[in-house]
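To make the argument concrete, we let one protein speak, a sequence paired with a row of structure tokens, as a model reads it:
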Amino acid sequence: MADPKGFLNHGREVAKSRPVDVRLKDWNEVYVPGSLLPIIGKQAGRCMDCGIPFCHNGCPLGNLIPEWNDYAYRGDWTAASERLHATNNFPEFTGRLCPAPCESACVLGINQPPVTIKNVEVSIIDKAWETGDVAPQAPERLSGKTVAVVGSGPAGLAAAQQLTRAGHTVAVYERADRIGGLLRYGIPEFKMEKRHINRRIEQMRAEGTRFRTGVEIGRDLKATDLRKRYDAVVIAAGATTARDLPVPGRELTGVYQAMEYLPLSNKVQEGDYVTAPVSAAGKHVVVIGGGDTGADCVGTAHRQGAASVTQLEIMPRPGDERNAVSQPWPTFPMLYKVTSAHEEGGERVYSVNTTHFEGDEDGNVQWLHLVEVEFVDGKLTRKPGTERKIPAQLVTLAMGFTGTDRENGLVDQFALDLDERGNIARDADFQTNVPGVFVAGDAGRGQSLIVWAIAEGRSAARGVDRFLTGASELPAPIRPTDRSLMV
């Protein structure tokens, strides 16, 4: 183990953030560069080597957390990187974006603050890039088989990298103009700078993966034609159909889906625009939805110079501490979170429901009308006399996603079966009802976390490899039916 008394001698210490007034002036990541390395050895040393590492179960990738904690504690960064990459293709993504269910399952977390697993992870991978421990892993020989991957989010990239390293010729199709999916255009720069994606893409190119941007399967290229060109297809198109809010005034200018708003600010950082075509500058902004995407909208609005930012959530405010009865360890608890975006200002309002929008004579949204709600006999009920309105000149809808895109024709052209939740159905090998067509990530699982996407991509790659060659040595960390460690 690392330090036998580490968890007794050292408390939890996390990465330091740059001052709010400083970081709001740019789009760089919020953390102080280099602040983790001086403390990460002691933090890794808090790992208990607990015998039964429940952190493995909390993480769908099955990350070998005690092992790379030990190496990080000892300063053996090369070994730590090798152990980290043994289960995770892109730890720099998860180390920045994952909500860390592994930490919720940490045995130390039963009665103490858990190990800073996420911070250790990102320290290891950042050090690995710095020292050159991350290098292309080209296959020794080619199989002669070809695979198309539809979608370049974390599931698609993980599947593509695994299959390329197995010797197959892989082409990734992305309908956007750049590779990365929601990592590229759904995650703001202040949460993950896109240089992290760019260097992984270059690694994958060097390994032999090919990329095709600006090609939407179903529209630009028929799904049936794609199937004829390749020996196998992996659909990793995500669950991009956003949940809408069908209330009066929804058609007013200024009411946008989060994924209509967020990509524009990312395109500014890419140099496509000088200023975002839809900007919060000088406006009263309302974000509907209390999750991570909503928080991304909050942080983006702050940096664009919003006059005010209000985030609405229909559910009650979560508790500050784990409820041992309703959310026992090692499940992932639903707790009140203060993200970096919330540290920067704005108001959060819980237990409210939007009734309608009100606009000016030119059709621009000006006010949002809401009412307080409560649960009565398990049903959400409006509280009489609590109606009010708040200023809203820009509204973003961040209420989650309902499934994969059906409008582009991909699902219907392949004649894919759907499950009871509207996701693409698959068997134990992640294969759909169409032989040779597989599905990974949110398109098959529904909206989920980045660690689940990467785990699905790796597992689907094994299914594809077995389909093409009859056997596979690729790892499959999860089954399609596996679910998060939650009550």
